[in-house]
Design goal:
Layout lengths: L1 H15 L8 H7 L16 H12 L6 E4 L8 H21 L6 E4 L5 H10 L25
Parallel strand pairs: 1-2
């Protein structure tokens, strides 16, 4: 719990330094899945954003070199997707700063990356992601008699 709390504290401090009108301390609090000081909360009581960050945190416990997030669009609210992207970028930057020899690569699938643009422009130079967007070809229906 201490590691998670430290990550949220660092994110909140970074967010506090942002210009007005970008992300706020309330955004970090909305994402915090450690609702109380003891970390005593049921997963069923968490918002979708809090569940996202819980899953992301658990995936990073062993400090893997790569984390894959399938369909960040399951977060229904655009603001929550922007918060999720910001959290990913902040954590990635924290890890790069603390251990430059062990950076984190994050692969995320999404239908629309506009919230990533919001997060990167809001965070500015505080995070330095390398973003590579891949356009997938449209899915073609299988031909009759095809084995696919």
């Amino acid at each position: 719990i201490g590691l998670f709390r430290d990550a949220f504290t660092t994110a909140t401090e970074l967010i506090d330094d942002l210009p007005p009108g970008t992300f706020s301390k309330q955004d970090a609090q909305r994402a915090d899945f450690l609702i109380d000081d003891d970390g005593e909360v049921f997963v069923s009581e968490l918002s979708e954003l809090q569940k996202f960050f819980l899953e992301f945190s658990l995936a990073n416990l062993s400090r893997p070199p790569v984390v894959v997030i399938d369909n960040i669009d399951y977060l229904r609210e655009s603001a929550d997707r922007a918060r999720a992207w910001a959290g990913i970028l902040i954590y990635q930057q924290m890890r790069r700063t603390r251990d430059p020899e062990d950076p984190l690569t994050v692969i995320v699938s999404c239908e629309d990356s506009s919230e990533l643009d919001i997060a990167t422009s809001s965070l500015g130079s505080r995070t330095e992601p390398s973003v590579l967007e891949l356009e997938l070809p449209p899915h073609l229906p299988a031909q009759r008699g095809s084995k696919h």
